[in-house]
Structure formats: structure tokens, C-alpha cells
Task: structure prediction
Amino acid sequence: MTSLTRAQTSIEELKGVGPETMKELSRLGIVTWEDLLWHLPYRYENIAIRPVEELEHEAQATLAGTVQGPPNVKYYGAKKNRLFFRLFADGHLIQVVAFNRAFLKHKLQPETKVNVTGKWDRHRAQLTAQRIEVGDADETRAYAPVYTITGKLTVRQLENWIKQVIRQGAFPEEALPAFLRKKYKLPTIAEAIATLHQPENAQTLKNARRRVVYEEFLRFQLNIQAYKRTRRQNEYAQPTKIDEASIRQFVQALPFALTDAQTRSLREILADIQADHKMNRLLQGDVGSGKTVVAACAMYAVVSAGKQAALMVPTEILATQHAESLADLFRPYGMELARLTGSTKTARRKEIHAGLESGEISVIVGTHALIQDTVPFHDLGLVITDEQHRFGVGQRRALREKGNPDALFMTATPIPRTLAITAYGDMDVSRIDEQPKGRKAVQTYWAKPDMLERVIAFVRKETAAGKQAYVICPLIEESEQLDVQNAIDLHAQLEMLMPDNSIGLLHGRLRDEEKETAMNGFTGGDIDVLVSTTVVEVGVNVANATIMVIYDADRFGLSQLHQLRGRVGRGEAQSYCILLSDPTSETGKERMRIMTETTDGFVLAEKDLRLRGPGELLGQKQSGMPEFRLADPVHDYRALDTARQDANTLLDAEEFWQHPKYQPLRDYVQGSGATSGEKLD
Ligand code: ADP
Ligand code: MG
Result:
């Protein structure tokens, strides 16, 4: 900032602000005129004047009229009082009641013009006032701002000070170049702020909001993108030389053709691997979208360039499954693959360590056992983390620090695009937003528990036709506190109810061999029905399973239900998901309805976000999620995306670093530390 703008003037320099009020204002974070201007209303009241005939009983309404006869005040104790007066408004005589407004009495002389906003009681023809504007109110105003205030401050004072600053024209510096304002039809910052405090109509209010939101996002994105670029320059990495032709062959040898989205994601990943900076990429794709095979291609690329690749997964089951399917893919190329988990025996573990150290083992698949200090690598080129949200930030970092490899994080949590931009601000994001061809959407039904017999009949019919089913319940064994289904009892019950079927049991408390037996039995088709807790939630892939029954489904969040449902519908046959539940809460019911209405993970994520808020969806508080004054990354996601693109275009342009019209934005970016590679707040 070259010189202080007038907006930086202290609030001292306002009529009616003394030491006391300064203290109160500073508690609201208001020290300068600019702070005052940014103390925006948190909502607006609709004060459009309406004819009496149109008012609805018990709804809020605004009437304009004149005072009839003298007002009356009743006092209750020292501070409480009630003010009454009669209002003549378009031909009707209305009673107005207002609490604790005795001070208005002398102003409400007969024939005085007033606008009153309040709750309308049709039977009594009475308005209980929240807002009384005395005198010639501007009758064209449709909205009244509502502000947060504290202590002894009054809304009147606040409005008055804001008006003083607006009248002086002491607005913050205009940061948006004219061409951008023109492109999006945005008002100037002065117009926008004035409107936000004193909106004339819905349209100008909307535009003022758009303006502020866009600028907030643009600043945010300029920061993030500038930071990314700087870090990239600072983090030079020896590029990995990959052999395109050999990768093409590997892809062609796959049992299916990659979808366009898979191809696009793979191309983005390979570009990172070949670039002279470290990959730091998030691969997002709904369950079943085929992330694993993309990961396999990336691993193949790195290994054929002479380096090692590691895949870290959250559970033993998943480690086993990935290890097996990857081994099948890599075997023809003579790539040595090993699996390392918590249950790997000491002797085998030593062998694996030796193989990793010598470079003999080129691909390692494992759980967090992989990041234990003692695991040595010869030349680790790529680390992939599956279901990355299941790992703590620390665990992920630990693996990355083993030789600073390229890092790819995979997630099936369909974080809305824009939220991903904010939450994972400094990561690049690839999205597989398309399912392999021929997949049929899973048909989802919500059934009350008393329909169990019909559900079982259906499962028997499907299994008789050679299909398999999962039955999921929340608990492992009976609980005294919770009246919900448990896996052990249900397993016993189903064995009785389905004598012709072979029923398996899987839960977290089984020994590893038992888990493996159950899982292998199901994968191999010897088990028809697998009763399980949510250990099968992530990644497990059995294409012949077409039924997913979820007991007490309302106990799970939408994202988790979606993950579970994603275990079926992996082959060509029609699959079904049956939610057994009788929720008592409204959100529980809402969740069941949403599940039956959509199979789109991104739609579900948006809804989940609205039901639960971003904090819970993202698990822990993620860095890079700033607080905005007005902008809401979920609601305003289009603006966020636009701002991201614009930020990149600006940063790419030579002109941005030179032309005076970019001075304010440039100062902002350079002042934030983004260009010097310091960590952003
Ligand atoms: P997720 O993204 O949930 O991890 P997976 O990688 O487990 O999905 O893939 C789900 C299933 O889809 C696997 O059986 C996989 O072999 C298969 N698959 C992946 N890509 C394709 C494709 N392009 N065409 C057909 N099937 C595919
Ligand atoms: Mg997966």
C-alpha cells in the first residue's frame, strides 16, 4: 500500500464517537472507517410496503401510514414498557404495539408519518413492531439491514456512523480493474458497499453481493495460485523420465478401455511425474469410477523408469485386495510386488525390508506399517495414498518424506469441486467424473425393519440366481445401550432364515486369518451372503455382488452410505441397495430420502454438506479454508471457480506484474507472502 487511504481514518474522527464507544466498537473489530464499512448487515428485513389486504396472519409485514391520536405507554418496572398507538394506513385503522420503545412517544405526534415493520395479527388488526421509522421514510426501500451489535451500542448509532463514512466517500481502494467489473457487470467497491448498507432493491443488492464475493474469491485464489507457483519453483525435483510408448502398451493390455476421465487424469499425473517439480495431486473419483487402475498405470510408469512405487491403504483387507489385483497386472512385466501390513510376520518383514532397500521389490502395497521409520527404500519415486481421508495429515507427510517422492492422494469422498479447491487449496486436483460404460445405477429402496421377510426373500432369489449380497450392520455384538442390529446375532439369524445359503461373517474384531478367510470366501464365490460391519466400506471390490442391505441405515452419514452402496453395481448386472431403517429424526428420514433419489456422489456430498456442514465432511479442520466476509464456497461455488480461472490468467500475464491498474491486487499478493514462498495463513 503506497499511502493510507481515507478509509484508514480512525473511527475517532466521527461525530458521536467517544472513548467509550471506541472501546465498544473495537470489540466488534472496528477501529478504522474501513472496518466500519465492512461491518456488513448479517441479514436484511423485507420492508417493502404492502396493502393491508395482502398481509398474512402471523407473517412479517411493513405498513406506511400516519399516527392517529396520541400514543400510550404502559410501564412494567424500571425498564420494561409497552408503547401503543394507532396507525392509519391505506384506509385501515391499525393498532401498533412496541416493546420498550417509550422513548419514541414524543416523536409520534398525531399525523406524523411512520413506517412500521412487525408481525401482523389479522384478527386483532394489530402489528407488533420490531422496527418503527418516524418521518419521511424512503418508501422505495425494500430492505432494511440488520446488524450485529454489542454492549451499549445501538443500531441507530451504528447506522449513523456508517452513513457518515459513506457520505464522505471514504471507501476502500478499488481493486478490480475496470475490464473485470465490466465483464461480470459488477458495481464499483464504493457502490457495492453503499448498497450493502442501504439496499434499494433486490437486484442492486444481489449485484453488490456478487461484487464482494467475487473479489474475496479472486484475492484468495491469487494467493493460493501464486503460492503454488512459487513453491513449485522452489521445489525443484529431478524429473522422472518415463517411456510413453511402454505406458501405452500397458494401458492397451488392460482388460478394458480406460474411460475418457481416467485417461485425462492419467495424463495429468504423468505430466506431474515428468515435470521438474514434485507432484502433489488429489485424484478424486466416485466409488467404482476406477481410480485403482489409474494408480496402477502411474506406478507402472515410475517403475519402468527404474524407481519404486508405494501404495498406502487404510485397512488390511484393502491391502490384500489391491496387492492381489496389482500383482496380476504387473506380473507379465516382471515387476516384483510385496505386501506389508501390521500382521506381516517378522521374518517376512525383514525380507521385504531387504528387498526394498536393494530395489529388488519395485512396488509395495501396505497399511500405515509402511511409514514406520525402519522401512528403507532404494529409490522411492511415487507414493499413492488410497482413501486419503482415512489417514491423518501426519501419516501422509511421513511417507512423503521418505525420499521426497511424487505424491498422489486418492479419495472417493466426492468433495464438491469448489470445496476441494478451498480445502485442498495448494493441491492440484484430477477428477474421474464418469463411471465405466455399461454400469447400471444401483436401485435404492428404503424399507422399514418389519419388511425384513420380503427383503430376505429377495436376497434368496438373487443368490439362487448366482448373485451375492452384503448385509451391513452398525455393531459387532449386542449392546445394552443401543438398540441396533449387530453382526454376530444377525449372522446367526440369517443362517436360520436362509438355510440353503452359505453366510459369512466379517468384522474388525476377528483375527486376520479369519478376516482373510471370510473375504476370500466371498471374493471366490463360496460365500453367498456376507454379514459385516463397515470394514468393507472402503475399496472392496467383488463384481458379482449385486445386493447391499444396510441395517439401521439412519445411523450412517450420507457419505458413508454412499461408500457402502458403492460396493455393489460394479459389474454389468443390475444391483440393489436396501436401506432398512425406521429413523425418528427428521435428518435421518431426510438422509433415507436423498439416498433413494440420487446415486451421484457429488450431489450427495453437496447435500451432506448442507445437512452437516463442511467441517464434518472434511473430517478434520483442513488448512486453507479461510473465512470470508460474505462469500460462501458451497453456495457461491461458481464464483469460486470463475475466480480461480481468472487468478491463473492474471498470474500468467506479464502485464499483471507491471501495469498500474493491477497495483492493488499485486500489492495484496506480494504482501501476503505468497510470492516469497512463506506458508500462507
Ligand atoms: P474405485 O475408484 O472405487 O477405487 P476401482 O478402481 O476399485 O474403483 O474400480 C472398480 C471396478 O471397475 C474394478 O473392478 C475395475 O477393474 C473396474 N474398472 C475400472 N476402470 C474400468 C473401465 N475403464 N472399464 C471397465 N471397468 C473398469
Ligand atoms: Mg478404490
Summary: The CA atoms of residues 347 and 353 lie 10 Å apart. The longest strand covers residues 60-76.
